[in-house]
Write a structure and sequence with these properties.
- Helices cover 41% and strands 17% of the residues.
- It is an alpha+beta fold.
- The protein has 2 domains: 100 residues, Beta Barrel (Elongation Factor Tu (Ef-tu), domain 3); 81 residues, Rossmann fold (3-Layer(aba) Sandwich).
- The chain has a 6-stranded antiparallel barrel with strand order 1-2-5-4-3-6.
- Helix 1 packs antiparallel against helix 4.
- The protein is elongated.
Length: 258
């Protein structure tokens, strides 16, 4: 059992630890890969130039960068809210600058700086490297803060999340499985997921059939007249689930980057 404030504090500390670890991993990657390899991975943009300087919120300096060639930006992981390193050639050089992506289009990035950036950024061809995908961590922190709303909106669910209330289940339904090849543990998981009043966790290592089980759970809910929103922390996982659902002739809509 854990008090809400203690729960939030604990996980915010863990999120910050993970964020720092990602920074270290990216620094190692920058050392081991050249710029072209990082750009191919979507974590760098080469041959960029500053075409506009302006003042943003709070008087922060905001610079607009485009490809020197004028071409569209290649596919990149760099998104609004991410921390990036701006350098002449070596992102780990002492004179490199760190900024936050404030706007992104198909041809340009706008980057905001907490302090006045060095003058060479305006005149030189630069390289922009993803330093940490901050939007992911911001969303996790926002999710923790949203738990406050559950105090009034759904105190029972909050109790389950914090561990001072046991999850409740309705009587297990008799169901006809869409996938007759499910094994015993998968069938039990499907039944319990359908019977869960608040939430249900399916946990297991890769290759144990979690995606197949989730596909069955979604199909069962749809057959009962529900609309289902399925999300994941990776596009690949969403695509795998989508493929299973399409093969089952379910009506689906894919949102996001394929």
């Amino acid at each position: 059992m854990m008090h809400l404030e203690r729960y939030k504090r604990k996980f915010k500390e863990l999120i910050q630890l993970e964020r720092r670890e990602q920074m270290l991993l990216y620094r190692k990657e920058i050392k081991s890969l050249d710029g072209r390899e990082r750009e191919w991975l979507g974590r760098a943009l080469l041959h960029m130039k500053c075409v506009k300087a302006e003042r943003g919120l709070g008087g922060r300096k905001v610079l607009k960068f485009i490809k020197k060639s004028g071409e569209k930006l290649p596919e990149t992981e760099i998104s609004v809210g991410d921390l990036v390193i701006i350098s002449r050639k070596d992102p780990l050089a002492k004179d490199s600058e760190i900024g936050t992506v404030s706007e992104k289009t198909s041809r340009a990035l706008k980057i905001a700086f907490d302090r006045e950036p060095k003058s060479w950024i305006l005149a030189k061809e630069v390289r922009i490297d993803l330093y940490v995908n901050d939007i992911t961590f911001q969303r996790m922190l926002e999710a923790l803060d949203r738990l406050e709303k559950l105090k009034e909106e759904n105190p029972e669910l909050l109790g389950v999340i914090l561990g001072y209330k046991k999850p409740e289940f309705e009587s297990l339904p008799k169901i006809k499985f869409f996938n007759e090849k499910l094994n015993k543990s998968q069938r039990i998981a499907v039944k319990k997921a359908l019977a869960a009043k608040h939430l249900f966790l399916i946990h297991g290592p890769p290759g144990t059939g979690k995606t197949v089980t989730c596909t069955e759970i979604i199909l069962q809910h749809v057959s009962r007249g529900y609309k289902v929103l399925a999300t994941s922390d990776s596009n690949t996982a969403v695509d795998n689930l989508l493929e299973n659902l399409i093969n089952s002739r379910a009506k689906v809509v894919r949102i996001g980057h394929p």
